[in-house]
Amino acid sequence: MIDAHQLPLVNAMLNATAATLVATGYVSIRRRWVAVHRACMVGALIVSTLFLASYTTYHWSAGSVPFTAQGWPRWVYYAILVTHIPLAAAIVPMALITAARAVRGRFAAHVRLARWTVPVWLYVSATGVLVYMMLYQWFPSSQLK
Hints:
Blueprint: H1 7-30, H2 34-62, H3 72-103, H4 107-138
Helix pairs in contact: 1-2, 1-4, 3-4
């Protein structure tokens, strides 16, 4: 069984996996590899769903971990966080609507929204990993002991 304190690492790994799948899915569709694109994007949705479950489980059990580093790391951390949080909330409906349009065969509408969804999803996934690295690896004094 995974201990709740291991979930931030699991979350970072899930975010990195989602980013890799979204990027691979994007490259695949640009090369017209539709089946690979579909598999990558379904995989990204599944991994992101697992992330959301793990993230909420962690914060339900462990609460919030304050970032206590001072100076430039604090400014960088909060600059990332202030963009990450609203975009993380926005990506859930964006990804679901984008996927629903593809499933329904509404490809023109799918592409119009996917042009926004892909960069936002990549940003949220990448900054999620950065938040983890800053909070738990690079500035570990920020952790509650």
